[in-house]
Amino acid sequence: MPFRKQDSSVFDNFELRLNESSKKFLRETAKWAFILAIIGFIMIGIFVFVAVFFLVMFTALNSSVNPFVQSGLSVEFVAIVYFVMALLYFFPVLYLYKFSRKMKSALIEKNTEDLTLAFSNLKSFFKFIGITVLIFLGLYILILGFSIIAGVSAQF
Description:
It comes from Kordia aestuariivivens. The protein is mainly α and 156 residues long. The chain has helices at residues 20-60, 67-70, 75-109, 112-155.
């Protein structure tokens, strides 16, 4: 029998309710998410500070003192890497922060809309982290593949 739009599952009309244990777990999760988000924002500030520090200090110094010139990197490149790391780190930290605040609000005010927004931010956090991990795994596999090819071709 083909699926028809009016066919519905038992779960379509099921309303999920949170018991006290679930609320306790969510409260604790929101607290830890808040702590991790604050630490994340501090780390982002440190990344930006280091980037600005490298730009200001090492461009003012003579190139012979600059440690990046000896390794073949420019100060601007290193600063850009730190800015990009701060930018990449910003979005998951922001999602985590929003999750913690909305979850706390939802549990205090018993607000379903805030609960939905909290879970939406948690989903966005994990989606961002998941996509980032997949991209870096792909890059690692590409680098490994090119390294193997370069190693094999160097022997011949």
